[in-house]
Amino acid sequence: MSLEACSVCLEQDSKYTCPACESKTCSLECVKKHKLRTECTGQVDPTTFVPNKDLGANQALVNRDYNYLLNIERKVFLGKNDLKENAKQVFKRNFSQTKNVKRPRPNEPNNEDPRLGLVRKIFPHVTNTSIKRENTLIIHLPAGMSRSSQNKSGYDKKSSAFTWTVEWLPLESGEMKKSFISYRLKESTPLCDAVPLSVLARSLGKESLEKESLCFYLDNCVSTSAHQISLIPLSSSESLATALKDKIILEFPKIYVSSAPVLNADLSGYHGYGSGKAETSDDSSTTSSESELVSDSELDTEDSDSGQKSDEPPEEESSKAPLLEGQKKEEAVADIIEIVHLDK
Fold it and tell me: Fewer CB near the last or first residue (10 Å), C or N of the chain?
């Protein structure tokens, strides 16, 4: 049986057959020349028409078509998953500086939100901020950081309400317990109903808790104190939207929860965001707080969508919180926590 001559060099007997065009070649060098001359890919086109008689006579053609359909199905499946994952980040990362511009105020230099100056002072390398809902200023960390990835706050079309991601930090006798995160909390939900009591009781080491006795404090993320935790008292009956009104948060709210009020005679009261210590008298404290809060309360809210009462249990995610070392439990509160009173 004589072999066909190589279609490229025409000298040697052919050894190889091109899967795409069935050209005969004798060596690797001739194969490369064949692809270069004819611009052949050397791969079979799975979409090429094959007559039924050839398809039934050759099992390899049936296997080729079957594998081709499996690959198409896999690509469609992976494409849908990628689309779902990317869609979750669309509303969170589609920020524009023009959307954050508020209505000009005649008495404010450069018509800039006064809170931005403090944010730039505490976070000099963070430039992305936005204002959401009840004039809440959100500081956005670079994409890829853990807190940025955990933030799922945004408008939920399914429930027709704005939902928040909230980090809860149980606080007992000056000691921070194991923290956890709740997702998809509607902004109309009261704080006492938003926190999952079963998870909170487990973190505090108690069998049960009464939600009416809980005390809530918002973490002051722009505190100028390097050795103290600055807290802003919140009312347990107010909604998330009201609690976060005119506040500054880092990605999403960090709320401390205690079964008893965090009150101590040694605590220093701060009025406004990082404005310095207040006078000891009640009159001077009230005056300072009101004068500094006027600039924040006059800002307009950016969104007009209102939430509905939460009817779904939140999801939780736990993380370790650092313990306060080197101090006695009964002295820890007075030494490391300061209360920031923001008069309404």
Answer: N
Nearest to 319 by CA among 176, 181, 200, 134: 181
200 plus 298 within the same structural domain: yes
- Considering only residues 168 and 279, tell me which one the structure prediction assigns the higher pLDDT: 168
Pairing of strands 175-176, 16-17: unpaired
What does the block give as tokens for 307?
């939430």
Closest by CA position to 337, among listed 104, 174, 128? 174
With beta carbons less than 8 A apart as the criterion, state whether 269 and 341 touch: yes
Tens-place pLDDT, residues 93-141: 444 444 444 555 555 555 677 888 888 888 888 778 888 888 899 999 8
Choose between 15 and 89: higher pLDDT. Answer: 15
Buried b (16+ CB within 10 A) or exposed e, 108-130: eeeeebbbbebbeebeeeeeebb
Domain that includes residue 25, residue range: 12-45
